[in-house]
Amino acid sequence: MNKKESLKNTILLSYALSSVLAIYMLIYHDQKYSFKTLPAIMLVVVSFFTQKKIDKRVLIFFLCLIAGDTVIVNFENFKFGLYFHSLSFFILSYLSWSFFKKKTRKEFIKHFITFLILFLIIFFFTINDKGDAYSSIFTYGISICLATSLLFTNYLKMMIPANYMLFLAIATRIVSDSILTIVLFNEYNIYYSVIAHVIYFVSNYLFYKGFSLKYI
Fold first, then answer.
1. Cα dihedral angle (171, 16, 93, 166), rounded to 10 degrees?
2. In 36-50, which positions are buried (b, 16+ CB within 10 angstroms) versus exposed (e)?
3. Fewer Cβ in 10 A, N or C end of the chain?
4. Domain boundaries in the chain?
């Protein structure tokens, strides 16, 4: 095993350990010390030190995730955190769109409408008390519908490992967000919260894996 591969494995192990640490802090409700951003930082570090070439757009994607997680720790800034996460998915959408052909784009619209209808049902009938985060939740929903539609269409047209990983990443993110929606807008449940965060960290790793196979 060469030095680069050894470094990669070490940092990825650190990603796993920092994810466990973040879950541990979540269970004990320690709001002063949040480690949710640390795993994503580890993924940026491993990409920077082990990849020959890093797409700046991929780097910005992860930096937006980190910024969103940092801001959203304070629930008063919840809506601003969602805007950062929305930006990350708009960047992801731009990356996917650049690989599309004209014929494929028509099929994408069909999938986008389907995912948009599903989101609107959840938005209007599940999230009752949106508070002042109304616009940020709506923007986030549109961004994730757009990214999901593009990645899903991309995967159907070209079933390569990178596309599979990226589609799986966005799918697990939707599952995580759905569970967190239940936690945030209903009675708090620590078990649901832990499950949502575990899936969230898995999703981030799948994004890293997909990007490393295709873009980096």
1. -50
2. bbbbbbbbbebbeeb
3. N
4. 3-214
Please write the tens of the pLDDT for every residue from 18-60: 888 888 877 776 554 567 777 888 877 777 766 667 777 888 8
Supply the DSSP string of 27-63, one letter for each residue.
HTT-SSS--THHHHHHHHHHHHHH-S---HHHHHHHH
Structure tokens at 128: 């009752």
| Tokens read off for 100 | 């599309």
Render pLDDT for 59-73 as a digit per residue (tens, 0 to 9).
Answer: 888 888 888 888 776
Do residues 4 and 50 touch, judged by C-beta distance below 8 A? yes
Measured between alpha carbons, how far is 19 from 203 in angstroms, rounded to an integer?
12
